[in-house]
Specification:
Length: about 170
């Protein structure tokens, strides 16, 4: 059975806790940021993810978004991918529509490329194109985006760092 994407509400508590604990133990910055738990219970995290899908988040400076997890055939979470339904000016500079991350123990196995491909397939017919950004020095992420049809628009300075901005046209998928 191949890997698949699950919306957050279909992820089991024990698999999420095991996933996020690996990030926390490694002291890595959790990517995507939406996957963090910040000392909240699983129920509180679920409520936050439900809230994130609403227009109410606009009042707090965010945009409506949905979090997905890529799981293997056993249900183990390999990574997470975050879809922002719309992008504001800040996200145009850094962030775009999609952010993703793979847990440390599963990196360099092609999961980021696969996860992005799965989401883009889901988005075809719903979006014409999506923007994805990455730090200019993050060559692995740039390759992931390019393997999925990303076309480099430009590089911009955001908060003192050079950011690559890509567009992926979904009619090409």
């Amino acid at each position: 059975m191949p890997n698949k994407l699950l919306r957050y509400e279909f992820v089991k508590e024990e698999t999420y806790i095991e996933y996020v604990s690996e990030w926390e133990f490694s002291k890595d910055r959790i990517v995507p940021f939406a996957a963090r738990r910040e000392n909240q219970s699983f129920d509180q995290v679920m409520k936050r993810w439900q809230y994130d899908e609403t227009d109410e988040v606009i009042k707090t400076g965010f945009v409506p978004s949905t979090l997905y997890f890529m799981v293997d055939e056993t249900g183990r979470i390999l990574g997470a991918i975050h879809l922002r339904h719309v992008i504001n000016e800040r996200l145009r500079l850094n962030g775009g529509h999609i952010g993703y991350g793979v847990r440390a123990s599963e990196r360099k196995k092609g999961y980021a490329t696969e996860m992005l491909s799965l989401l883009l397939t889901e988005l075809k017919g719903k979006y014409d194109k999506v923007m994805i950004t990455c730090d200019d020095v993050n060559i692995a992420s740039a390759k992931t985006i390019e393997k999925n049809g990303g076309i480099l628009e430009d590089k911009v300075v955001f908060e003192g760092e050079l950011t690559r901005r890509y567009w992926i046209h979904l009619e090409d998928k």
